[in-house]
Amino acid sequence: MASALRLSNAALRPALASASSPARSIAFNGLRAYSSAQPKSLKDTFADNLPREIEKIKTLRKGYGSKVVGEVTLDQVYGGARGIKSLVWEGSVLDSEEGIRFRGRTIPECQEVLPKAEGGQEPLPEGLFWLLLTGEVPSEAQVRALSAEWAARAEIPSFVKELIDRCPSDLHPMAQFSMAVTALEHESAFAKAYAKGMKKSEYWAHTFEDSMDVIAKLPTIAAQIYRNVYKDGKVAPVQKDKDYSFNFANQLGFSSNKDFLELMRLYLTIHTDHEGGNVSAHTTHLVGSALSSPMLSLAAGLNGLAGPLHGLANQEVLNWLQKMKAGVGSDLSDKSITDYLWSTLKSGQVVPGYGHAVLRKTDPRYMAQRDFALKHLPDDEMFKLVSQVYNIAPGVLTEHGKTKNPFPNVDAHSGVLLQYYGLTEASFYTVLFGVSRAIGVLPQLIIDRAVGAPIERPKSFSTEAWAKLVGATL
């Protein structure tokens, strides 16, 4: 850690030399002068900011390293480490009342300031990736350059395509997705450089290259799975002059609808990052702390995302809504929905899409999708049902008394929007979530390697040892 904290701009430059940058630059008295024809690249922006960020961490630890920042109760220990303050996550902070902020900006603020596609209204996820990694809002030119770089890196190795093609069609899309990302380890710049021997100061640059590669390839991998399982197996080539979301929608087979393109841009942006303690984010960070490559780290996170208590929940919400609609028939009155909610709860099940580990209000990501629906599909029957449940469920859950947050989270809405535009295969929804989540968790992995974050290794105790620690007799 200490050696990493002493890095300077001069020390960082060799780490950049191993990979070409899209920005043309010349050295002048130790600084870079960037050609006006091409914007400053993401990699160079991160490198230039890194010494300041390392010094910030060094100063914080030196002056306040022994300060107590919280306490741990036995309930938290046995309750899944809920609320324990123990992780560093630069990209976002989740407030229980306000919701998520990406580098200090709310979702509406990100929608306002991040660059958009020509004629579009929703932010491009490329811009959020830049913001999460650097803390800076990129220019339109920088985002266009990033779109072009991801498009240039998008081709997947032939053996990965063959691997996907050989999967049985009834293997869950998330299992196929994780397997294909794991197979990309064969292409890992980090793994190859580590095997040859490299300095710690070079870790982040190879992590950056791998992260850029894997993010660029995820839409093609996801689209190949989708087209194999549900369609004809044919995937359109990436269009080098288009943005990330356009290419993903086009490869899935949905680029003809401009509103769907806007939905995909919004979806990929708001599902990226939700603080570091959720399963997919924490797992990616944890596995990466052992110096596993971004491919292996992300694959581990995707396996966590596939669980029904995490990313799979959006699939469960849609299934629950459809069962409700079939169960109550044409009587979609408030009373029928209230009765259905109570029947769900009394059967020992939860209402999918409602409640959150941290939030104590309606998820701003839910509201972003609701605003989109009010604008583009206000008369859709399923959206009206979602709105009706939104008005009724919090009261029922509050009366039930067994949830700390009776309000909807992001999963309560996304499936209905995708269904409306024809992407009806609910078992694929978590793969969409996974493409987005990579854009959120991999910036932190780059930062971890850049600042020399150590392997994560918390202390554990047996129940008997915990009892002794708190003075209990069992």
From TrEMBL:
<dbReference type="InterPro" id="IPR002020">
    <property type="entry name" value="Citrate_synthase"/>
</dbReference>
<comment type="similarity">
    <text>Belongs to the citrate synthase family.</text>
</comment>
<dbReference type="GO" id="GO:0006099">
    <property type="term" value="P:tricarboxylic acid cycle"/>
</dbReference>
<keyword id="KW-0012">Acyltransferase</keyword>
<protein>
    <recommendedName>
        <fullName>Citrate synthase</fullName>
    </recommendedName>
</protein>
<dbReference type="InterPro" id="IPR019810">
    <property type="entry name" value="Citrate_synthase_AS"/>
</dbReference>
<dbReference type="GO" id="GO:0050440">
    <property type="term" value="F:2-methylcitrate synthase activity"/>
</dbReference>
<dbReference type="InterPro" id="IPR016143">
    <property type="entry name" value="Citrate_synth-like_sm_a-sub"/>
</dbReference>
<dbReference type="GO" id="GO:0036440">
    <property type="term" value="F:citrate synthase activity"/>
</dbReference>
<feature type="active site">
    <location>
        <position position="310"/>
    </location>
</feature>
<feature type="active site">
    <location>
        <position position="356"/>
    </location>
</feature>
<dbReference type="InterPro" id="IPR036969">
    <property type="entry name" value="Citrate_synthase_sf"/>
</dbReference>
<keyword id="KW-0809">Transit peptide</keyword>
<dbReference type="GO" id="GO:0006101">
    <property type="term" value="P:citrate metabolic process"/>
</dbReference>
<dbReference type="Pfam" id="PF00285">
    <property type="entry name" value="Citrate_synt"/>
</dbReference>
<dbReference type="InterPro" id="IPR010109">
    <property type="entry name" value="Citrate_synthase_euk"/>
</dbReference>
<dbReference type="InterPro" id="IPR016142">
    <property type="entry name" value="Citrate_synth-like_lrg_a-sub"/>
</dbReference>
<feature type="active site">
    <location>
        <position position="411"/>
    </location>
</feature>
<dbReference type="GO" id="GO:0005975">
    <property type="term" value="P:carbohydrate metabolic process"/>
</dbReference>
<keyword id="KW-0808">Transferase</keyword>
<dbReference type="GO" id="GO:0005759">
    <property type="term" value="C:mitochondrial matrix"/>
</dbReference>
